[in-house]
């Protein structure tokens, strides 16, 4: 059955539907309709600093709410959207919608937006981002763009120059799902990333035994020594969180801290954090 929009395993589509030709065609039709009918919704997942225990920002995550089929996961429809070029209008909508939302949050909170390789095809992405920031009055240093190394595999000058332009505006460049690709390491310095998001497969290795913990520790050290913002994604247990903070990975995101929530619930997450902050300040005051 379909559950809340936050989880990964929410889709009601069968594998066959997305892998077979007929399934892809059907998905294409659904995407076109979804865009027209405004079935796309953005969810926002909170990110926290384990040292200060405070909220630092949110990652925008796309959902498709089909009136009959329920919530469809982006892992199922993003590839089809990329194939058909639909990712362009959808991506533009994601940027505008998420920046507009973030412009209403307290100034210290950041917004992370996932970019698809297909959005770099035309070459107008830097201009689109600049325009959106201006329209929504969101400061560039509050925006982080997340890309996976799939984009960088075809390291054309076109991609390179766009990444440079985006960085020049003051937008932070984050490598998503770090550690899962083939050449993440060389890309890190060639494209001068500002941060890495360690893939949850490493995080989930905590307490499992074997080599994964050593690998995770090494990835954190590597990120820190390169002066990168190091974030762990998919943190689900207190044990994982303890391991991360003990190994100096202070930025976290995951179900343990908060599920992706619709725009309307973001205010509640922020209010809760402000209460925590006020209490912390009060405790410090009482202690002195
Ligand atoms: P991602 O950018 O790596 O996003 C993190 C995914 O992990 C999200 O899945 C999120 O819901 C899920 N997640 C968060 N915390 C936990 C946890 O504690 N445990 C587990 N098991 N999972 C957790 P989601 O929303 O289904 O998105 C999947 C992927 O789809 C994203 O991976 C991203 O690559 C892509 N995607 C999502 N939204 C967008 C978008 O707006 N644009 C583009 N181009 N891609 C998007
Ligand atoms: Mg991401
Ligand atoms: Mg990721
Ligand atoms: Mg991912």
From TrEMBL:
Highest taxon of the lineage: Bacteria
Signal peptide interval: none
Residue stretches making up the EAL domain: 24-274
Protein name listed in UniProt: Diguanylate cyclase (GGDEF)-like protein
Natural source organism: Rhodopseudomonas julia
């Amino acid at each position: 059955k379909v559950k809340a929009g936050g989880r990964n395993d929410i889709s009601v589509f069968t594998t066959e539907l997305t892998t077979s030709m007929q399934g892809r065609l059907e998905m294409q039709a659904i995407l076109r309709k979804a865009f027209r009918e405004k079935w796309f919704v953005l969810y926002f997942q909170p990110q926290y600093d384990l040292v200060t225990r405070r909220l630092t920002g949110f990652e925008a995550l796309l959902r498709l709410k089909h009136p009959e089929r329920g919530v469809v996961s982006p892992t199922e429809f993003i590839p089809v959207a990329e194939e058909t070029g639909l990712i362009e209008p959808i991506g533009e909508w994601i940027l505008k919608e998420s920046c507009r939302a973030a412009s209403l949050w307290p100034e210290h909170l950041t917004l992370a937006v996932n970019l698809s390789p297909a959005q770099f095809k035309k070459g107008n992405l830097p201009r689109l981002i600049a325009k959106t920031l201006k329209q929504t009055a969101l400061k560039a240093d509050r925006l982080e763009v997340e890309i996976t190394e799939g984009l960088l595999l075809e390291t054309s000058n076109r991609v390179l120059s766009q990444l440079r332009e985006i960085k020049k505006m003051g937008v932070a460049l984050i490598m998503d799902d770090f550690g899962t690709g083939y050449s993440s390491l060389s890309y890190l310095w060639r494209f001068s990333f500002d941060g890495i998001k360690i893939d949850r497969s490493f995080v989930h290795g905590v307490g499992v035994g074997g080599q994964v913990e050593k690998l995770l520790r090494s990835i954190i050290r590597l990120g820190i020594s390169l002066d990168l913002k190091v974030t762990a994604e998919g943190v689900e247990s207190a044990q994982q969180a303890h391991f991360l903070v003990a190994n100096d990975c202070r930025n976290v995101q995951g179900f343990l801290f908060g599920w992706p929530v619709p725009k309307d619930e973001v205010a509640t997450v922020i209010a809760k954090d402000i209460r925590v902050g006020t209490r912390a300040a009060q405790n410090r005051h009482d202690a002195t």
